[in-house]
Amino acid sequence: MARRIVLLILIFFTYSLMAFPQGSSNGARPVVVQGAMKSETEKLASHLDNVAVEQVGGWTFWRGRVNGYPVIVSRTLKGVANAAAATAIAIERYNPIAIINQGTAGGHEPGLHLYDIVLGTRAVSIGAFKSPYRKAGAGSNTLDWIPLNLMATDGSAGNDPNARKVAQFSGDTLLLAIARRAAWRPARGRVVEGVIGSSDVWNDEIDRIDWFHNRYGTSVEEMETASAAQIADLFHVPFLGIRIVSDNTTNGDAYDQRTGEACQDYVYQVVMAYITTATR
Ligand code: 5AD
Questions:
Q1: What's the CA gap between 132 and 138, in Å, rounded?
Q2: Measured between alpha carbons, how far is 270 from 241 in angstroms, rounded to an integer?
Q3: Pocket residue to mutate for ligand 1, from 202, 242, 246, most atoms within 8 A of Cβ
Q4: What are the residue ranges of helices labelled H in the chain?
Q5: Contacts with 132 (C-beta within 8 Å, 6 or more apart), sequence order
Q6: Ligand 1 binding pocket includes 223 (Cβ within 6 Å)
Q7: From the CA of 104, how far away is ligand 1's center (Å)?
Q8: How many CA atoms lie within 13 A of 135 on its CB side?
Q9: All residues at 6 or more sequence positions from 125 whose CB lies less than 8 Å from its CB, including other chains
């Protein structure tokens, strides 16, 4: 009996050590923070202590510490393929405890303005579709297209009715709760919750944007979050997308690159709050 109790206590402690790295950061699993461009990563990287820069192929990782805890800033480069590859590399090499993908995005609703920040309750892929048949000369209408969830079938996605839904990934509950509670508020803009849509397309057709917004509830669009979320999901790594509105064609707000810096300021607060929780 006593042996069993000792064994149970040992299992409990081993598990809790794996799940929550303790105060001493030795061996703790890092938080990875991703951004596609220099204007979305430079400020975060500047907050790191004891930085070592690692280059893997075309991807750069700044490994350092925030308040003594390991944090890695990753420049994913733009687009879904680059973001997916950067995410897989980060997970395989660094075994992160959590991944935050952050940066700029275009608004899908007129009420969202420059510098508003969207915490991604969900990320959806708005890049995978099947078009219905049209004969030669009949033109093209993207509003007729049917979504494809490329994760939903092992067969031909185009022919499997199970795949005819949008691929979506929920934001991690703990990361969302921490981001919500982050005491710091940006000087300009609001922090809201919403759906982040990702593809390699920059959409400026209002009807198309409304179609995404009405069908999938997209608040903003950009080119990385859903693909990074998909890879994190396959590796069971907690993930959250945080995006700032840098442009909004639905209300005429013109692109402002400096939003990328403001997003990093907010995300830095979220990272610090996460570290406090994870190391408690
Ligand atoms: N549509 C698509 N991507 C956008 N980005 C900012 N605004 C938009 C938008 N309206 C981001 C993408 C990509 C780069 C072009 O900027 O995530 O990295």
A1: 12
A2: 12
A3: 202
A4: 2-19, 38-46, 80-94, 173-181, 206-216, 225-234, 259-278
A5: 144, 145, 146
A6: yes
A7: 6
A8: 0
A9: 80, 149, 150, 166, 167, 168, 197, 198, 199, 226, 227, 230
Q: Which helix (H) or strand (E) holds 247?
A: strand 239-247
Closest Cα to atom 10 of ligand 1:
106
Q: How far is the CA of 220 from the centre of ligand 1 (A)?
A: 9
- Picking from 127, 117, 157, 63, the residue whose alpha carbon sits closest to that of residue 242 is 117
> Are 117 and 190 in contact, with CB atoms under 8 Å apart?
yes
The phi-psi region of residue 242 (left if phi > 0; otherwise alpha if psi is between -120 and 50; otherwise beta) is beta
Beta strand 49-56 with 59-66: parallel, antiparallel or unpaired? antiparallel
Residue 269 DSSP SS3: helix
* Residue bearing tokens 């991690």: 172
Distance CA 126, CA 56 (A): 28
| pLDDT interval class at 182 (50, 70, 90) | confident
Structure tokens at 70: 């390991």
Instruction: Decide whether any atom of ligand 1 lies within 6 Å of the 222 Cβ.
Output: yes
Q: Which atom of ligand 1 is nearest to the CA of 255?
A: 7
pLDDT > 70 fraction of the chain, expressed in percent and rounded: 90
Q: Would strands 191-198 and 218-222 be described as parallel, antiparallel, or unpaired? A: parallel
Name 88's Cβ contacts closer than 8 Å, sequence gap at least 6.
231, 235
What are 109-143's pLDDT values in tens digits?
Answer: 999 999 999 999 999 999 999 999 999 999 999 99
Both tokens of 141, joined, read 């209408």
Question: What's the mean pLDDT in 244-257?
Answer: 98
